[in-house]
Amino acid sequence: MTIQTGVLIETLHALGAKVRWCSCNIFSTQDHVAAGIAKAGTATVFAWKGETLPEYWWCTEQMMTVPGADGCDQLVDDGGDATLLVHKGKELEAKFAKDGSLPDPASTTNAEFKCVLQACMEGFQVVTIEEVVGEVDIFTSATGNFKIITLDHMKKMKNNAIVCNIGHFDNEIAMEDLENFPGIKVENIKPQVDRFVFPDGHGVIVLASGRLVNLGCATGHPSFVMSCSFTNQVLAQLDILENCTKAKNYKNDVYLLPKKLDEKVAALHLPALGASLTKLSKEQAEYIGVKPEGPFKMDHYRY
Question: Where are the bilayer-spanning segments (predicted)?
């Protein structure tokens, strides 16, 4: 629950929605925003847990305008905010997705071959964690998988290496194994910054207890980045409204928004970045076969 989330909720309210809110990160809620949303009458709820979908769902996290803009560029800034340190050494980003980058000099380890090729062509060093575990200053996991940074890795890291996560869950870093390691000592430096000291005397600094570092140690993504993500969510909500009485349109499943909508979101945000594009004429669009994709039928989804 950040200011940007509050704006999303206000937007949905303005469109006539009744909104319920649930948060997933225990460190990220901004109390003043939560208080304002509660005062406006928004109910708080818990997450829905289970395998059964009572209705169909739109998944907006896979849209290009979400991970494409919602990347990892600010990670070093977030770590700096949390530790008050300036790092000019190597950083390692463990990632499996298509999004995100780190300032040079950096190393990346990636499981998608086409992304590995792209990283290499952009000048990044592609390595395994094991190859550089004793050299790197900042380790960041961003995979959506689990036990990416293991206890064995952390035992081999240099003293005061910083470990953080910007993936989906706190188990990308093997926090349970680290916390239960015999003889481990924990020094709380400040909120969301803990130094885990091994029996041999060397320690690693873990940010936000392995949870999302941009939320736990900063204030989330910049408003423009969240605007891209939340615009996808609002348009998905509009489609749910349009089709909620037409059950035959969707089965109880999770759907990706069509590429055409992703492009619409990108087009809406380009002017704010000073981009100027030539609009295709009707003949040019027909020549290259541009057609509305869909199940989106409402005119305001077309451009």
Answer: none
The model's pLDDT over 76-88, given as tens digits with 9 standing for 90+, comes to 444 444 544 444 4
Same domain, 200 and 120: yes
Helix (H, G, I), strand (E, B) or coil at 119: helix
* Residue 51 CB-density burial (10 A; 0-12 exposed, 13-18 middle, 19+ buried): exposed
Q: How wide is the angle at C-alpha 169 spanned by C-alphas 3 and 91, nearest 5°? A: 90
Does residue 9 lie within any of the structural domains?
Answer: yes
| DSSP assignment letter at 295 | S
Element (H, E) at 234: helix 223-243
Q: Are residues 90 and 150 part of one domain?
A: yes
- Residue 108's domain is classified under what CATH number? 3.40.50.720
Residue-level pLDDT at 157: 95
CA 156 to chain centre: 28
